[in-house]
Amino acid sequence: MGICSCANDCITQPQLKLETAIQNIQSCHNAAKQTITLCTSTISTGDKLVTTGESIKDSLIGAVTDLDAESFAIIADLMDGDMAHEAKHLAGSMREHSNKCMELSMTMVKSLEESVDALPDSIESYIEKKAQQSITDELSTEERGLASNIEEDVKELTSCIDAIDNLKLLTAIQSGSNAFVAIASKSEICRKIFGIIRKFATSITTITEAILALDVSAVISKVKDILTAIGLCRYIKQFAEGCKGLMEKIVTLFEGAADKLSLLWKALSSAKDKMAESLKDVIDAQSLCEKAGEKMKQLRRSTDGMDRQLNPESPLTLLKSFNQTRFGDSINVTREIDDEMVAAKSKMENAANMIYQEYKSLPPMITDGISDTVDDDDDVQLAKTSIATMESELDDMEKSIDTINSADSLQAGKVLYNEVSNLPQKIDACQDMIDVCRDCASKGQLSIDSFLGKWSLETAVSQIQQMCRLVSTSSFMKEVVVHIQRILLVMSRLLKELKKRVQSAANQAQQFLSESGVESKVESMIDSAGDAVADKLDSMMGKFLGK
């Protein structure tokens, strides 16, 4: 019989296929060894990431547990410090290792599948059916749990990412804490997954090493081991894909949390610095108001009794008690009070402008949902009512002073007497307004002290609103100071008019007495004047004062 023309192929092709299978198994073996090395390095990185994440989490939770304004800079530095940068680097490294591990697993799977393709068809079919089942039966409870929960872990991280993306002042503490709790816990899961992958890769190297030590013809006897190796490779691929997904989310969450929380806490830290910086101006404003209040009391004392001195029933009393310096001092005091209050207003405006600019620079995540409008309290409403009433009275007072300038002596004297009689009421009203300004400065200090004090989730919005309250208080104080200035201006005009009128009367009296040959000093002249002179003075002063 002749030899079949394909006999050579029939003999050589199975041998060639087995050699190809061995080559693929060698490739799988090499990839498995690389995976072991990679996993060992990654587990070490994972340990560091978990430790760093736990440290950041503990520091953050510790800072917000006993939160005050001084903590803002600490938390901001924590979010943007060396520890956070190291954690970002570690997370990025684990993500890259996950990608590499997945690539190696695909290499191992492909190599073994090509090895199976080189086997007889019947064996190949059997392996395809049994490969996954074989390794599934060998998974531990923890490994099964990790494999089945990866999707839920990814969802949990996604939820944390969404919370950070929509971060608000009210959610910052909770969302920030949750983010780093999740980062630490999911990093631990990834570290465990790499431990499983390393275990599987070690088993694959053991299997492939044993197969490679056999003669080519004996490879088929290790079909079960090849079957196990394929299942392991597929699980490595599954775990690596899951770990990659987790690490992608961890990196995204870490970067988002660090950036957003850093921005938020830096902004709050800056606001704290500005509030602290404004405190001196606010305290100075309070001190200036107190000085103005003391001078207002001095003005009250210096003008006390003027109405009695202008009593038309005893006009000579005016000349006996007239003191030009007294009128000059009173006018000077009104100027000093005006200066003090303008300075106080300027101090409060400096503080308010600084805080207003700082508030406007806060990121929306802090100010969204917070109203920058502050409702008037009872004291402010009462003060505004008093101002409205007093403004009307001042209008009438200015009209009266205009009348004094244009009316005859008799009418002018009557009007002047009436306005001088009402002067104590105006001084008391001005004193009340200065007290209102002092209270505004005190409230400004309370707003600052509150902002610089303890913070909590419940008080966070109120603390931010303290900035708005300070601005609102300053705005109201400015309104009150303008009103005070008008009171002082009108009182000053009245005192100047009174001084002018009394000086004129005194000069006329002195001239008359001098012409009558009496002593030049007013008091001695009055004491020594005869009845005729006294009657003449009474008549003259009575006309001036409206007798």
What's the multimeric state? single chain
Pattern of helices and strands: HHHHHHHHHHHHHHHH
Residue share in β-strands: under 5%
Helix run count: 16
- Sheet with the most strands? none
Q: Please give the share of residues in helix.
A: over 70%
Low-confidence stretches: 1-13, 525-534, 540-547
Count of beta strands: 0
Rounded average pLDDT: 79
Structural class, judged by helices and strands? mainly alpha
Shape: rod-shaped
Q: Any idea what the radius of gyration is?
A: 47 Å
**Straight-line distance between termini:** 166 Å
What labels describe this entry?
547 residues; mainly alpha; 86% helix; rod-shaped; disordered N terminus
Descriptive report:
The protein is an all-alpha fold and 547 residues long. Helix content is 86%, strand content 0%. The protein has helices spanning 7-65, 71-79, 82-117, 121-136, 141-165, 169-212, 223-303, 306-309, 316-321, 324-361, 364-367, 378-406, 409-451, 460-515, 522-528, 531-545. The N and C termini lie far apart (166 Å). The model is unreliable at 1-13, 525-534 and 540-547 (pLDDT under 50).
Itemize the secondary structure elements and their pairings.
Layout: H1 7-65, H2 71-79, H3 82-117, H4 121-136, H5 141-165, H6 169-212, H7 223-303, H8 306-309, H9 316-321, H10 324-361, H11 364-367, H12 378-406, H13 409-451, H14 460-515, H15 522-528, H16 531-545
Question: Could you give a quick summary of the protein structure above?
Answer:
With 547 residues, the protein is mainly α.
